[in-house]
Design a protein that fits this description.
With about 350 residues, this protein is α+β, with helices and mostly antiparallel strands. It is built from 13 helices and 12 strands. Helix 2 runs antiparallel to helix 3, helix 2 packs parallel to helix 4 and helix 6 runs antiparallel to helix 7. The chain is elongated.
């Protein structure tokens, strides 16, 4: 927690765990695109009780801003930004325990939130809360990467790209919300930074969702595998048009298993005009995209030169096992491709 000054400091007396009434005190948190306000019935240095009709599950992690009831405060001296865990469920609300960081790395995350709040205008509080959610999630999956994330958010990315990166992180957390041991999941900082930096260029919501799915799959209890790095690198190389082709082929093709158990797709006929997805693309560009996807091992095509495209309105394409695996990872699927395409 941060900003324990003035009346907040008097309310949260250090080393006191007894609950104290908190009149006109509220917790603000983000739910989708809505800011929820829950009254705080009582509070201590270790937790609080939130009055809410929402049935929050035990162990759920919440990113909260605690302050006096009223407009959301930007001043760090007048609010607390914290992460809490649902510890018990009552008839009219939930008891929460604060997840209090003590190490220097955690203090860097708190400093990043404070510096972002200083740049936030009052009318942008929804954006700020989404940033708090995103940074809270990132601090949990890569706790030692505060410096890298700070450089990314406050140095290399424009405001527009920061917004896209925040959306990717928030969506990735939603992919993991129902997973067991979510508080134990970790990801390699270099993978996280690569996903956020490249994904921040995506202006299409669907593409940002795929980056979020890939990020969620890279969050593990154990260390990241070579496959995690390989799939992030592979997806980073694709253009929007190429991603659309892979998505369409993997979604539409009939899946089959070989005698050895490997999953692949049957050849499926696609109209040439459909592969342009409403974009004015020449056959030569479509051919180059298909050639690149074939060279990357994501699909197999049934032609060797451009004459096939010029003489036919359709083309047979099939996804490879690698293409099918990349697609299901980008949907946030953590199991085997066989389980995803069943």
């Amino acid at each position: 927690m941060s900003g324990h000054k003035g009346w907040l400091g008097r309310l949260l007396i250090p080393n006191r765990a007894d609950r104290r009434p908190a009149d006109h005190f509220a917790a603000y948190r983000l739910s989708g695109a809505t800011i929820l306000q829950n009254s705080v019935r009582d509070i201590s240095s270790t937790g609080a009780y939130l009055v809410t009709e929402e049935r929050l599950p035990l162990g759920a992690l919440l990113s909260l801003n605690l302050q006096r009831e009223g407009p959301l405060e930007l001043s760090a001296a007048r609010r607390i930004t914290t992460v809490a865990k649902v510890a018990r469920v009552g008839e009219d609300g939930v008891g929460i325990e604060f997840v209090v960081p003590h190490d220097p790395a955690a203090r860097r995350w708190a400093h990043l939130i404070e510096s972002l709040s200083e740049q936030t205008k009052p009318q942008e509080m929804l954006t700020f809360l989404r940033m708090c959610d995103a940074i809270g999630f990132l601090s949990r999956i890569c706790p030692l990467a505060s410096e890298e994330i700070e450089q990314l958010f406050q140095g290399r990315l424009s405001n527009h790209k920061v917004k896209n990166a925040v959306e990717i992180a928030v969506k990735a957390e939603s992919f993991l919300s129902s997973k067991p041991a979510i508080d134990k999941l970790r990801a390699d900082p270099s993978l996280v930074v690569r996903i956020l930096e490249v994904g921040s260029c995506a202006d299409e919501e669907g593409l940002r969702n795929q980056w979020a799915g890939l990020l969620s799959v890279c969050c593990r209890v154990d260390t990241n595998s070579d496959a995690d790095f390989r799939f992030v690198d592979l997806f980073s190389q694709l253009t929007l048009a190429q991603i659309r082709v892979v998505n369409s082929i993997c979604a539409r093709s009939i899946k089959i298993r070989s005698d050895a158990g490997a999953l692949s797709g049957n050849p499926t006929a696609f109209k040439i005009e459909d592969l342009a997805f409403g974009i004015t693309l020449r056959e030569a560009q479509i051919e180059r995209d298909l050639e690149i996807l074939s060279e990357l091992g994501l699909l197999q095509k049934a032609f060797d030169d451009s004459r096939t495209l010029l003489l036919s309105d359709t083309i047979d394409l099939r996804p490879t096992p690698l293409g099918l695996q990349l697609y299901c990872r980008c949907q946030g699927h953590r199991g085997t491709p066989e389980e995803f395409y069943v």
